Amino acid sequence: MKRILLTGGRAPATLDLARHFHNAGHVVFVAESVRYPICRGSRSIKELIMVPPPRTEHRAFTQALCRIVKENQIDLLVPTCEEVFYVSRHLDHLRKHVQVFCAEFQTLEALHNKWSFSQTGAMSTVRTPKTDLIRSMNDIDQSVADRSVYKPVYSRFASKTLISPTDKKLERITPSDGFPWIRQDRIEGNEFCTFSVVQEGTMKAFSCYRPTHRAGQSSGFYFEPVQHPDIENYVKEFVAHHNFTGHIGFDFIEDQDGQLYVLECNPRLTSGVHLYGLGSGLTGALLGDADAPAPKPNTQPSMLALAMVLIGLPQAAVSLSLRKMLSDFGRASDVVSRPGDRYPGTGQIISLGYYLMRSLALGISPMDASTRDIEWDGEVLDDY
Description:
D-amino Acid Aminotransferase, Chain A, domain 1
């Protein structure tokens, strides 16, 4: 039995990870900087502990983690969301107290930075779209905007992504040396996302899925498992090349000719974890158990049921695809409310209300409000 500390308890993926550890007989603690994360009240968690927000108090955040590790005799610290950058920045100090499941800061930064990843992501037969760095409005060629995708170098959930924007929309962006954007050729085709658990360059778990239902062009809330050997081989080769350790995900598009393009890398926990059932052996991969068999993902889709109702249902009504949406809903299992652990299903409504209030107070979207205190956009971080 291990004592596990997870950070990022606001994410459904982290809740799922906590359930895996709990089901395998481990004791799970969660450190969070928001008061109403989705994991609050889950039977899989022994204690939820408040910590300072890493984005504004990253040294105090690290000190809090060290205190939690010492007081609760933690064996393994697993960062899951974007706070992984703050954990990794002070990795040498944290490793004096506990084993940490994440990569070195320089590696994470290079993968999180969409420009640097676009320059190194191509491998084998997988390409990256043609990409240009934009540091000012003078770098923008509006004549190619209709076949381009624009996004900040540091961003998440595609919340600021512009696809074939009009001149008016393009004029609203404010690229600079400190906050650059990229322009990529727009590739049309089938989208795929992945999730992997990696130990020292060896892929221990892998799942691939299609985000069948999503909030506009933003992150998906319905995860349809697929098998794609070319994508799996790419991820194996990539993580081995970088000797990576931690959670990692990629976004791909396959065009009509079958050419694969890797769009970006997410060096953190992603929604592909929802495709693993309890008892699949996922914790063995996370704990580095050399004798543990490779866990197999489910063939059944998973979903965020509340998002399917609040977002997917209206979208289906407008697009006249209600029958398909209801059919998909019936095939999938909810990742939040589970038998024997129903409280998070109710608690997510409280979390949603909390983020709505934060978004109104800050003048930002609810999605941005849900990650504002853990985001890292390339700011210089002091040593511990």
